[in-house]
Amino acid sequence: MPVRFNTGGGVAAGKDTATEKDVRYPKTFHSGQGVKAKVGQILDCAVKRIIPSTKKQTIPAGSYIAEEITVDGDEALVSKNIRAGTSIFGVDGKWSVVDTATANLDPEKMLEGCMGFSEGKEVNGNMKTLTDSSFSPADASAFNDCRIVGAAQNSWVGAFDYSLAGYINGKIRIHIANLLAGNIRSGVKVGGVGGWLTGTFTSDATATEGDILDGKTAGAKGSMIRGSIPVQGTWNASCGTNESVRIPRGYHNGLGQVANSQATMGGQTVTPTTSQQTVSCSGKLMTGDVVVNPIPSNYVNVSSNPTFFSGGTYGKLADLGAYYYEQHGSEADTYTTISAGEISGNSVSVKSSSGNWERMIIFRRCIPAKIKRIVAVVDVGGSIYYSTYMMIVKDRVYNTVSKAEMDGLHGDQTLTVIMPDNPDPNAKYALIFRCTLSKTATSTFRIKSIIGYEN
């Protein structure tokens, strides 16, 4: 068995059991088989005094306490100093202790004699309690127990504003200056649930029966009077130009009117003719202008100059002459003037074909609207095919209005075409000669005369 000398001068026989965790720091010792001294690890407790706070304080485990540790106390740690609902170190807060940080007590809104807390401060009320004695009556005997109630239909009459500042415990009476029976119109009641105040004043009224509508009554000078103004209502009348009407006395509701009974006539346009025309405007109020159109530059008096062609010359109804109008299939159309001598002396001709080729005679001046019928005398001296016509056409050569066919006999033939009963004033009517046979054909003839008639 080994023998070891320790620092204390004793000899251990291997019976030491202490370790570093069993010895205070920084003490040294020997233990076990080693010869080197060991250092203790038990630390002395540094806490000498504990002052309670909002945080948890801990004495480390395994510390060596060499002296007493003092935990501070406070006499103020009592229930009345702790807010209700809160517990501090096992002491519960008192029910009457509350947080006033968010309170907003206004002294002017709290009764006198009352106290409260706001933002941690004591607040004393300044609001007074109002009673009847707070108001000076004008004449309390005129009201008795009557409560004035506004009954008008607007925001002013029958209502009043009174500045009040204080607490009203129950009811108070507010007297209205000059609200007396003598200041209220006679027969009118003013008041509410508690009683009526009936007016007696009429002495300054100035109305008479002549100022009040018939069937209505009003108080004046202490008595009721019945009106005599006639009620005319919606009164109407009429008069002509330069005439007058007397409006009757009385009340008019504003809907009546005096109308002009004068006959009126609107504007119109008159086109000159060979006959006299009368615009019927006598005794009428003209509301527009009467416009007389000028005589057209190409005007023809068909009554005195009804001739298209006669005696080898063009008449007034055809003074622009005539021309051959030819269609040549895909080629451009041609217009060839025909002289008066050619029409009366030599034979003119119209042609047709089974293809897209045609020649016709067209008189250039349009037919006047007053012409009702046109009569032509033609001398058939050459060959004439059926379907050869004198025609009236409208706007274009293929829009036939009337036609007269030549027969195959030689000699003079009379052809008559008729204008429509109500010609279109916006359309153009022309006189043509045309062969409509659907094969190649040529009809030749001589025109002796063409006359227009108004009937």
Characterise the protein shown here.
It is a single chain. The protein has one helix at 340-344, and strands at 4-5, 11-12, 28-29, 38-39, 49-50, 70-71, 87-88, 91-92, 115-118, 121-124, 129-130, 167-168, 189-192, 195-198, 217-220, 223-226, 231-233, 237-239, 251-252, 258-260, 264-265, 268-270, 285-286, 290-292, 307-310, 313-314, 322-328, 331-338, 348-352, 357-363, 373-380, 388-394, 400-405, 411-418, 429-435, 441-453. Strand 25 and strand 26 form a beta hairpin. The N and C termini lie far apart (176 Å). The strands form 13 sheets. Strands 25, 26, 27, 28, 29, 30, 31, 32, 33, 34, 35 and 36 form a twelve-stranded antiparallel beta sheet that branches. It is mainly β and 455 residues long. The protein is built from one helix and 36 strands. The model is unreliable at 1-11 and 134-161 (pLDDT under 50).
Total helix count? 1
What percentage of residues falls in helices of 4 or more residues? under 10%
Shape: elongated
Tell me the number of strands.
36
Portion in strands: 25-35%
Low-confidence stretches: 1-11, 134-161
Would you tell me the overall average pLDDT? 77
SS-based class: mainly beta
Radius of gyration: 67 Å
Q: Sheet with the most strands?
A: 12 strands, antiparallel
Question: N- to C-terminal separation?
Answer: 176 Å
Short description:
It contains one helix and 36 strands. The protein has one helix at 340-344, and strands at 4-5, 11-12, 28-29, 38-39, 49-50, 70-71, 87-88, 91-92, 115-118, 121-124, 129-130, 167-168, 189-192, 195-198, 217-220, 223-226, 231-233, 237-239, 251-252, 258-260, 264-265, 268-270, 285-286, 290-292, 307-310, 313-314, 322-328, 331-338, 348-352, 357-363, 373-380, 388-394, 400-405, 411-418, 429-435, 441-453. The strands form 13 sheets. Strands 25, 26, 27, 28, 29, 30, 31, 32, 33, 34, 35 and 36 form a twelve-stranded antiparallel β-sheet that branches. A two-stranded antiparallel sheet has the order 1-2.
